[in-house]
Amino acid sequence: MNGKQNLPGLTPAWLISLAMALGCVIVVMIPASIATGDAIKSSDWIGFSGNVVAGAVTVVAAIIAWFAVQRQIEAQEQAQGRAREQQTTDLASMLHAELAHVVARCCFDCESPWKKYWPKNATPGKMGPVKLLKFVPVEPVIYLSTAGQLALLGGAAQHLMEFHYRLSALRREIENTAGSADASTKLVEEGALKLVARRFRETLQPGARALDALAPLARGPIAAEALARALYYEARPHEDLNKTLKQRIDELLLIRIE
Q1: Most buried residue, 122, 123, 176, 197, by most Cβ within 10 Å?
Q2: Is 118 in contact with 198 (CB distance < 8 Å)?
Q3: What is the distance between the alpha carbons of residues 90 and 2, in angstroms, rounded to a whole number?
Q4: What string of DSSP letters covers 150-170?
Q5: What is the rounded CA–CA span in Å between residue 187 and residue 195?
Q6: Tens of pLDDT along 44-83?
Q7: Spatial contact of 161 and 150, defined as CB atoms under 8 Å apart
Q8: Is 198 helix (H, G, I), strand (E, B) or coil?
Q9: Could you give the C-alpha distances from 201 to 7, 70, 118, 141, 181, in angstroms and in order?
Q10: Could you tell me how far CA 230 lies from the centroid of its own chain?
């Protein structure tokens, strides 16, 4: 049998036992080897035996205490692992619910009206800055407040950060474009609106990837996404309620923008 088959934790115990045995042998042999002409009395051996027994009891107690400490450490590590898993699930669930709403907003806004601006020669018309500002994405409250815990999400955090980077670019583009509206007509030129439309499109794929990455970590991701879609279906009574965000996004990405 090789060393890999030894029970974990026995190596220190065997070392302690070996040290105790060697100590007993040394203590017994040294007096016998250096004994003078005086005979060793029984009382001497009784005292020595008492000391050996006391030492052995101390060593056994130390071994028992060592195993008890190891079990306690293992129990603490398991409890911490369970707590970390629960924390990760709770965090992913909250972030996924918020993400589903934000991605749904981007998706439905792309469907109407922004996909009309994607084709190269499209001329859907101008838009006033007041109407344009209505499309500004909401601030991700949960994402911003839990930024310090994103490491718990592993690789999913990277996809989530990529989407929110695109979302920030979209928000900035809308605000800057609205501020550059023509002073006389109070309208935004089509060229500027096409850039906003492109920023909307750039949120779709990162949003779908972030949802896919968070879903395995979250609690009830399908129900959370369905709720997010349902809120937008209220204004679209003829929509297919079973079509997922990924299906809608895939259809949008088929539209050419050249």
Answers
A1: 197
A2: yes
A3: 44
A4: GGGGTTHHHHHHHHHHHHHHH
A5: 15
A6: 556 656 666 666 777 777 788 888 888 888 888 888 888 8
A7: yes
A8: helix
A9: 59, 55, 9, 23, 22
A10: 27
